[in-house]
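How a chain folds remains the central question behind the approach discussed here. This step matters because it turns folding into a mapping between discrete strings. The sequence in question and its structure tokens are set out directly beneath this paragraph.
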Amino acid sequence: MSTTNVNGPAAVTPPLGEPDASAPIKAIRLRHPWRMVFAVVLVAIFVFFVIDAAFRPAFDWPSVGKYLFDRRISMAALVTIELTVFSMVIAIILGVILAVMRLSPNPVVKSVAWFYLWIFRGTPVYVQLTIWGLISLIYTSIDIGLPFMTPWLSFSTTAALNTFTLAVIGLALNEAAYMAEIVRAGLLSVDKGQEEASIALGMSWSQTMTRVILPQSMRVIIPPTGNEVISMLKTTSLVTAVPFSLELFTRSRDISAETFNPIPLLIVASIWYLFFTSILMVGQYFLEKRFSRGVGDRQANKSDAGGGAGLTGAVPIVGAGQPTVVLPPTPDKPGTGGTR
């Protein structure tokens, strides 16, 4: 059905009793009353917990404020960061090497990497750190030279390796086993055709890895690596097994043994751990955002630049104040259309 416009050609209108297809759709949101009730209950529980914690004597908030920025605690927090950074750097480097070994076609190299992962993933990290603390009983000296001959250089194990070094080695070797699997999963996530295309273009293996494979695999590697860094920050509390007692948790425990008030010092350590974890989470977010650029984005078709012209293949001619209907292209002449 059509109606005549005094200012121009006739406009197409729907028949009586049928909905107008050109009219905007009014969406009505579904109501979820129980969801709101559940949210109110959660907020009430949280507020009750905060109020109860604020006035509970066992938490001793004045002592928390007293020791939060104590020099001994702040120095221990710095040592904890050092343990985390050194251990993760070594673990990432060794993990990349192990991942490449796992993907090697050489069965001996692949088996050695698998055996390493089997040992360090199959035993608790606390047990490994305890063994590293007893390494001087297993190896009394570190000898450099040819086997079964007089060593060229010999060092006492206790003199060459202090407890901080042993803690870093123990944490790094354990974490490298997990990083190897993360890196291997990231490398396998890149399609094999990417490597074949790079070889066809004449790129070397190093160019293929640094310019094609690794940039694409980082999208898969970054999220679990960020989780491992946060986990490493908290795992440093286990280096007391070496024994190393200058990190955050052990230092706060030693102070609480002097004051006979352990709960405030545990809260102090938790606040520092939460502070460092929050910074790491922010950094992880921006790294993920950077390496995920272009993923899921779809380039707009150049033919869509003209709005409706990309759909019909014709630019509608709109008169002054008159309604216009854009017709699709005719079968005999694709890319043409008309208006009325």
Summary: Residues 298-320 have pLDDT under 50 and may be disordered.
